Amino acid sequence: MALASSLCAQSLFDLAPDDGETESLPLSYTAGVNFGYDDNPTPLLGNDDESFYGQAYVGASFLSNSPQTTTNFGAQLGVIHYFDNLDAAGQDVDDTAFTASLYLNWTHRVSERLRFVSRNFAAYELEPDYSTGFQAQRQIGNYFRWSTDNAVGYRWSDRLATYTGIRLDGITFDEFDNGDRTTVTYYNDFRYQVSDRTVATLTYRYSDVSADGAVTDSTNQFILAGLEHRFNQRSTGVIRAGVQLRDVDGGDSSSNPYVEGSFRTAINTQLSLRSYVRYGVEDFQRNVFDPNTGFNSIYSNTDTLRIGFTADYSVSQDLTLTGGINYAALDYNDLQAGGGASSVDEELLNVFIGVNLQVTDNIAVNARYNFEDLTSDAGRDYDRNRFSVGASTRF
Amino acid sequence: MKNTLKFALTAVLLAAAPLASANVADCVKLSKAVKVAVAADSSKVLEIVAANVAANESCACEIVKAAIVASDADKKQVAKIVNTAILEAPSQIRIIAQCAIATAPDAVSNIQAVVEKYDAAGGEGYSEKGGLAKGGLEKGVIPPPSDDGPNPLDYPFESINDPIVKESRWLPEFFFPPIEDDPNVTGPVDNSGSSGGSAGGGNGGSDIGD
């Protein structure tokens, strides 16, 4: 149900923002309904709730692409209702949740030398999108996630250019303590055109993270070298690797390896693939609540490896198959507060498949299956299965 | 929470940019109609380009791209298409050339030869529409890239002038698929001898996912 991620440019798949849609797309509206079954809608509470649910949404999107300016916009509003009463530790949980998301990306090429880029996103969601690299479990209640990234690009010579910018992003949870974050990142990318197909990059980022509750603030500096390579008109790869210098209030300073990469290809007109990888120390998941012991432990670092793949296959003009995997391995270490273990390891595996059938020009039906499995040293293992069928229209 | 929400929404609103005009939708439909017409009779590609560019100058880019792809034009044919489009819309010469180069980068030298012919002519009119502006550049139009190569500001998919060299064969064959389009064809359209051939058109935009 997520907005067209290829246009959002907000996921780990989009390290090199995809402005590959060279044709403009007119303003279009979408609406849809889904009905499904979730065998574990409150997975971190160790209960056995299961429920059927209904979901409805409306949305709009637009892409304008001219030689000088590219603008794309999308918005979506939705509601999900669980038909069975859900409870959390003996207390009722809201059975109805509202969701909303919005993105606005803009690139203005003033000249061959100067351009401005702005990428903006806001979402109020219930389910985590693991491809964005913000979460590793399904938390209770909604969360609000937002980001705005604004940069100026300047071409200093035929081969050398820079992007200099500032990114603000944040996440807040309605019902999850110690999870809120606000981050300010200043960055500069040096870009050198090695060949017609390849750009070498040297990146410096400074980010200041403000955390919530018992989790302390931190600063991170990234010094990365990278390559962006265009294999052909349909295949690109991006990789950046280097060092992450980290300083945590009330914790230790450390230097850690960091790598991020993405690859995308349209193998032919039927099959396209995207993948991402990222390894580094994250600030989003630094506290672990063990439901068995009741301990809430705060750690300085969460060393995280994230890998993901997604594929789309057009069986015919009307029938499309989609599938993917998101994997995250987290190592919580350097215990700062709480009575938990000195370190905790967790692994999340998320697998999904779906089919979309265009029944008429404007109406499609779909079916999806989503599987999650969390294994944890902190005793909060869970697995979760979701099935859904639905219909949507675009006009 | 409330202050964070206000700050975030304000930041997003301040970054908003003006949206394009409704002509975008017309050019998309026109592009698909041109593809259908050229596919039905590729021998009339130049007449189709002339008629449609004359009636829709602002869509010259989409018309040229559609004609090149639908007719599977070789380098000489690309140059003829570009020349025909420029004759009908000389004010769009740079856009036409850039779009043709983006679609058929191996014909860049043929396209540049056509453009240079008009540049050399300066302000003398080649059509009834009064010729080209002195200096050849319209206000707001990005000048074509220099012969020194691509722009390092471009992300891998962002360049509209596609500098990719296609001759390399160190990758397996399936990495070099033909550039195929799947127009939402509604039926052959006869544009022979008529102007403003925006007939039929496709149904809606392409699917951009859910």
Oligomer: heterodimer
Derived structural class of chain B: mainly alpha
Counting DSSP H or I runs of 4 or more residues, the number of helices of chain B is 7
Radius of gyration of chain B using CA atoms only: 20 Å
Task: Determine the fraction of residues in helical runs of chain A and give it as a percent range.
Answer: under 10%
Structural account:
The complex is a heterodimer of chains A (395) and B (210). Chain A is mainly beta and 395 residues long. Chain A has one domain (5-394): Porin. Chain A is 1% helix and 68% strand. Chain A has 1 helix and 21 strands. Chain A has one helix spanning 5-8, and strands spanning 25-38, 51-65, 69-82, 86-88, 91-93, 96-109, 114-125, 143-155, 160-173, 181-193, 198-211, 218-232, 235-248, 253-266, 271-282, 287-289, 296-314, 319-337, 344-358, 363-376, 382-394. Chain A has an 18-stranded antiparallel beta barrel. Chain A has a two-stranded antiparallel ribbon with strand order 4-5. In chain A, strand 4 (86-88) and strand 5 (91-93) form a beta hairpin. The two termini of chain A are 17 Å apart. Chain B has 210 residues and is an all-alpha fold. Helix content of chain B is 44%, strand content 0%. The longest helix of chain B has 18 residues, at 23-40. Residues 9-22, 123-148 and 157-210 of chain B have low confidence and may be disordered. At the A-B interface, helix 1, strand 1, strand 2, strand 3 and strand 6 of A face helix 1, helix 2 and helix 6 of B.
